[in-house]
Amino acid sequence: MVSAGLAKEAGFAVNALTIDYNQRHRREIDAARTIADRLGAERHVVLPLDLRRFGGSALTDDIEVPKDGVGPDIPVTYVPARNLVFLSLTLAWAETVGAKDIFIGVNALDYSGYPDCRPEFIAAFENIATLATKVGAQGNAFTIHAPLQYMSKAEIAGEAHRLGLDAGMSWSCYDPQPDGRACGLCDSCRLRKAGFEQAGLVDPTDYAA
């Protein structure tokens, strides 16, 4: 949400791509639709891609989502090469519509655990984007923007507030409850809650715990 808001603030027309990879936290698909609508996206594509056929993650397989706090190791919520897959699909669409600027919302707290959120990966993919495309072969480079890359969760919450974005539109929880509330205990919920608290802002999320 904040990444798209910053793109719009910078004067870009927003084309939003959401990958419906059959993840367990499908609430985020609805959130993406709401955000794209509120931000006035030129177009919002929800692209189906069933990564449950691969499994290998608590988000795409019958693996319990950890609820005991944020640890130092790569968590089981890591979806193998997810951002590489997502960026590749985004690149294909960008080349199709004639866009050369791609925004992705990875940030500093994520790349400490997820290898495909690291700055080195983003820089390497930017190079690959030029090498792998007709546009690149014709001498036009792509730019991968990761405006949240070095922000903390508190700083991201602050940017949402500054941009006048309703943070309640966004979704973070890895394990939504049957009643629709965020679990409040998964890594993503813990980081989100801490970010709002550190920013001195009200977290509009309805948590089960």
Automatic annotation (TrEMBL):
One family name in Pfam for this protein: QueC
Entry keyword annotation includes tRNA-binding: no
Record key words, sorted: ATP-binding, Ligase, Metal-binding, Nucleotide-binding, Queuosine biosynthesis, Zinc
List of residues binding Zn(2+): C173, C183, C186, C189
Reaction(s) catalysed by this chain's protein: 7-carboxy-7-carbaguanine + NH4(+) + 2 ATP = 7-cyano-7-carbaguanine + 2 AMP + 2 diphosphate + 2 H(+)
GO molecular function: ATP binding; ligase activity, forming carbon-nitrogen bonds; zinc ion binding
Key word Protease present: no
Record family assignment: Belongs to the QueC family.
Described function: Catalyzes the ATP-dependent conversion of 7-carboxy-7-deazaguanine (CDG) to 7-cyano-7-deazaguanine (preQ(0)).
This protein's name: 7-cyano-7-deazaguanine synthase
Organism encoding this protein: Novosphingobium mathurense
